[in-house]
Design brief:
Number of domains: 2
Bound molecules: 3-isopropylmalic acid, magnesium ion
Radius of gyration: 20 Å
Strand order of the largest sheet: 2-1-3-12-11-4-5-10-8-9
Distance between the termini: 23 Å
Largest sheet: 10 strands, mixed
Order of helices and strands: EHEHHEHEHEEEHEHEHEHEEHHEEH
Helix content: 25-40%
Structural class: alpha/beta
């Protein structure tokens, strides 16, 4: 690739709560990577969620969509506040911070959400599972469909015979299922070649279509072993024997729930990066965790999921694999020595640090390589 092509436009959504702090640390690491590996970056700031409501009265503006589309990739912190105290939650649902996130996913066509769960050797003591289970190793990715299903189906609340009745429709078309199934099989081909489709085909019509379409796509990937699992069983198996999973493919809502469970299995939700991909190479990268308004501004947040999301961005959108691997290595090195409070255990031999020191340390590791 010529030098000229290694110029990237990266959208930056700092967002709400701990978002600005963790994004600052992730950019510190990205800057170190650009310096070390010789590519150039242009950062394009944009608003989403609560901070957009404060400025423009809506959680997502046309301008943010336009700017995001002009970028090679977007890095995001987190959006949203405390629903019990934040004025954002006095607004109608379609004007709240979360609506901005759902809106940008749809507007940018980010249909495939990859959430990675890796138990690093150094974090085995932070894993809540029994030692013999943790020792089998945990390394899987959940591919969550992100622009369909219950989140985007028809919604209504009506009054029938004097009683309120609310409806959310769970609908999928075969093409929506097929495009993420292809992404999931391609992902499996680069990993341990095992794919588990998680659904509720014993009850839901939409799940039966998922099984049918995934079964068809599977024929193009004879090297990949395909497994089918009901979502209730999957929730249990994630704790009973997580080592059995490599690629988990599932619809939007199941993926939302299972990915939170999966993150805790590897020690902390503060370690789980995510990539939300469109057709082609464009993607939006964010930690799976939320905006943690209770610790915002206290320097307690763990920036590693955002830093690991930067590694995903370099790998999937910018094609800078070497820099991605260097960041992952630097993260592993850092957790063997220092930890933020979410990962710190008594007597684990590491030093307690804040968000800023963690970011500086990881950036320092990149520069030192
Ligand atoms: C996530 C979040 C969002 C979701 C919320 C904030 C709308 O929980 O990214 O997992 O449900 O998709
Ligand atoms: Mg969620």
């Amino acid at each position: 690739m010529s030098e000229k092509e290694r110029n990237y436009r990266v959208g930056v959504i700092r967002g709400d709560g701990i978002g600005p702090e963790i994004v600052s640390e992730a950019l510190r690491v990205l800057d170190a990577a650009s310096e070390r590996f010789g590519f150039r970056l242009e950062y394009v700031p944009m608003d989403l969620g609560g901070c957009s409501i404060d400025k423009y009265g809506v959680p997502l503006t046309e301008e943010t969509i336009r700017l995001a589309k002009s970028c090679d990739a977007v890095l995001m912190g987190s959006i949203g506040g405390d629903p019990r105290t934040s004025p954002w939650y006095q607004l109608e649902p379609s004007k709240r911070p979360e609506a901005g996130l759902l809106g940008i996913r749809k507007a940018l066509g980010l249909f495939a959400n990859l959430r990675f769960s890796v138990l690093y050797d150094d974090l085995k003591d932070a894993c809540p599972l029994r030692k013999d289970i943790a020792d089998e190793g945990i390394d899987f990715v959940i591919l969550r469909e992100l622009t369909g299903g219950l989140y985007f189906g028809e919604k209504k609340t009506e009054t029938i015979n004097g009683e309120e009745r609310a409806t959310d429709v769970l609908a999928y078309s075969a093409s929506e299922i097929r495009r993420i199934a292809v992404k999931a099989y391609d992902t499996a081909m680069l990993r341990r070649r095992k794919l588990t489709l998680v659904d509720k085909a014993n009850v839901l019509e939409s799940s039966r279509l998922w099984r049918k379409v995934v079964g068809e796509v599977a024929k193009d990937y004879p090297q990949v072993e395909t497994d089918y699992m009901y979502v209730d069983n999957a929730a249990m198996q994630l704790i009973r024997r997580p080592s059995q999973f490599d690629v988990v493919l599932t619809e939007n809502m199941f993926g939302d729930i299972l990915s939170d469970e999966a993150s805790m299995v590897t020690g902390s939700i503060g370690m789980q990066p995510s990539a939300s991909l469109a057709e082609g190479t464009f993607g939006l990268y964010e930690p799976s965790h939320g905006s943690a308004p209770d610790i915002a501004g206290t320097d307690k947040a763990n920036p590693l999921a955002t830093i690991l999301s930067v590694a995903c961005m370099l790998r999937y959108s910018l094609g800078e694999e070497e820099a991605a691997a260097a960041i992952e290595k630097a993260v592993i090195e850092s957790i063997s020595r220092i930890r933020t409070q979410d990962l710190k255990a008594e007597g684990d031999g590491t030093r307690l640090v804040g968000c800023t020191e963690m970011g500086s340390y990881v950036a320092g590791q990149i520069s030192a390589v």
